[in-house]
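Lecture 7, part B: from sequences to assemblies.

Below are the input chains for today's worked example.
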Amino acid sequence: MNAKTADKVATVVICLFAGIIVLVLLGLLGFILFRGLSHISWDFLTSAPETIKAGGGIGPQLFNSLFLLVLTMLITIPLGLGAGIYMSQYAKPGKVTNSIRLVVEVLSSFPSIVVGLFGLLVFVNIMGIGFSLFSGALALTVFNLPLMVRITEQAMAGVPREQKEASLALGLSRWKTITSVMLPIAMPAIITGTILAAGRVFGEAAALLFTAGMSSPRLDFTDWNPLSPFSPLNPFRPAETLAVHIWKINSEGLAPDAGEIAAGASAVLVLTVLLFNFGARWFGRFMHRKFTATR
Amino acid sequence: MQAPAHTRALIEIDKLNLYYGTFHALKNVSMEIPEKAITAFIGPSGCGKSTLLRTLNRMNDMIAGTRIEGKIAIGGADIYSKEVDVETLRKKVGMVFQQPNPFPKSIYDNVAYGPRLHGISGRKQLDEIVETSLRSAALWEEVKDYLKRSALSLSGGQQQRLCIARALAVEPDVLLMDEATSALDPISTLKIEELAQELKDRYTIVMVTHNMHQAARVSNQTVFFLNGEVVEYAETEKLFSTPRDQRTEDYISGRFG
Ligand SMILES: Nc1ncnc2c1ncn2[C@@H]1O[C@H](COP(=O)(O)OP(=O)(O)OP(=O)(O)O)[C@@H](O)[C@H]1O
Ligand SMILES: [Mg+2]
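Predicted structure of the full complex, as structure tokens:
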């Protein structure tokens, strides 16, 4: 086989595999949406689930997922930004930084069920927080934080050295240079990365089974006092998220329309994650245009 | 070697040695840089011009593994002594880089950046600083109606003058220019050279250039470097008409470099 035919064969094989992957993805997406879309309605999105009757919704679960996302991000963003900035701008390259980086890599590649069990042990039992949104948020932080650190670190490293030097040469301190020149330049990349990370949090189930729990109290959507046990805003109540709900009704749902509910909920989940992804792309482009604007 | 008796020396460099790790980048460099005049550093690539320039505002501090021996005094004060605050030093010794590097902000914000972060917040005061600095950098007439526009919309030459304005806005005494025209077209280059001529009445300018004609055209004093050593420095006219060292003569007559 000469080089030319080898090249042709390789091209065909690669295109074939790429095509198969795209087809599988599209098929999966199409299947989920086809099965679920017809079931989505305003009522479905807002009403509470039913245990044995048909016609239940996913309202509390959707709310739980969003609220958990916000909680997780509230913990992850400041920590991740801080650590990322430290790692990229202050830490001297050496043994310590390298081992921190290694830990970060390992953490982010942990299987989520392991993180879930770790969360059950440490946050739920040892720290005594119990099955709660807060425990769930901490568990999600375990693999979201490394991602956030890496996103920040890379975004900061991507800032042109000339920009940093220009600011330092004006007699500005390192901190002022970071906050007023480097962070604004790195921001589009950080935000895009953060939204993508958020998509992952939104779809996570395994890590939440044993931390945020598999049930919600009867939420009272008129009670917005974060301290009362039935308030949706109480971070210390157990909370079943959308992804966990799908898993649960699929495996042990008693309602006669459990199949449809799971399908509808899956479609909602997939659509939301897609929204995050497209949102991140759109936002990245928007920020890029804004920063290089030649109005 | 005797410094040309142009004006009072503002910067005195005494037996300066600089090492990047084990690499000896500056060897026993001594010179005096006169106040309110233009000093040009010339020499082939890699001979240490930028390195010396960056010791003057301590930008080399950021590079891990650099070591410095000897003394640099600006206005009589040793800039490497323990008491010196690097940020104050850099305010007094401004820098313009080879590639125009305005921030991705508006023209106004680029110039106001330094003063603002150094604590000036009055709108009027900032307006005034921006205008004066842009005027000093010969850019005001071209941009006065577009101050809110992105600095990146300017041409390369305008961007470089904006960077000069940005440096002037924090009221330095010294302006370091590292091949500030090498990325520009001939007309923009000429503008910057004229600008340097005007600025030297108020600032002490040290410029690195690859272009010997530029050094001959604009500078009052020229320093010729080779392999980290100062071969010769003298009043520009003298250095170009009657070089004392054979290597200088070879270089300026284009026999190497
Ligand atoms: N950060 C660094 N680490 C190690 N060596 C360096 C570093 N920066 C510069 N050097 C070396 O020091 C020497 C002088 O570099 P410098 O940049 O000062 O030269 P230059 O005269 O400005 O050259 P050019 O005209 O190409 O800009 C070169 O040999 C260069 O390779
Ligand atoms: Mg150089």
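Note for the exam: Residues 38-292 of chain A form a domain with the MetI-like fold fold (CATH 1.10.3720.10). Keep this in mind when comparing with the next example.
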